[in-house]
Input
Amino acid sequence: MKRFKGRHTGENQAQRFWEVVETYHLHEKIGYFTLNNARNNDTAMRCIQSYIQNSGNPFDPLARRLRCFGHVINLVVKAFLWGDDLKAFEIEVSNYQTLEKEQEELHAWRKKGPRGKLHNLLVYNIRTPQRRDRFEEKVKQLYTDLSVATLIRGNETRWGGDYNSIIRAFDLPEGLEDFVSLAIQRNENGERAEGVEALKWDELLPQDWDTLTEIVNVLGPFQKSQLILQGRKHHGQLQDIFPAMDELLSHLEERKMYYHSSEKSGYDTK
Output
């Protein structure tokens, strides 16, 4: 193994790779590359193409590049949860520095429906130790036999955090609703606290919980596939990935047909 020095640019990655190829005379044995969508990997593949063609062998960087299945799942689910233009949304909800910016961020999340409203509630809940303690006390009063009493905020880079945050909210629905109601009540009684006014717009209504239930139904098979393919019995082989892709595509088609034929209201069927 060669030690990688310097920045992880595509050019540097390609150079280190080619040094290994030349050291072990692997010019005729180069196969396929499993990479995510990072731009430096795009550059690396173009540079590797130049190295290989200069050695007298043909090489198509598009045909020889496979996408990491876990990364593909992450992109698909992120688009499902937060929209097609995820980059623009991430910029819109970037870290706030002023009260005005914070309000803009809350509004941006709220536009995403129940998923965004839940996100705002979770951010409010975990922002201070005092709020977390009050929530934990409320949960222990409601659920005497429950082993967990904390909420989970979604992860900005991996979809699993978003999924787990919804699952945990379903474990503690009464606790979350009571926590929000009491916070609003204290604020109305004169115990003013930062950010409480916004909670009125983020309270989860029964139809919001119904929508979150449907989201969990859609994402469940994705979570299952990702966990199975991360296990020790599977190593990302095509014989494992292709069936998983077929199952997920069939699952999405089934849910799509269900929502288009359903008379239920309040669901975004895009």
Notes: Residues 206-229 form the longest helix (24 residues). The chain has two domains: 10-67, 71-261. The longest strand covers residues 33-35.
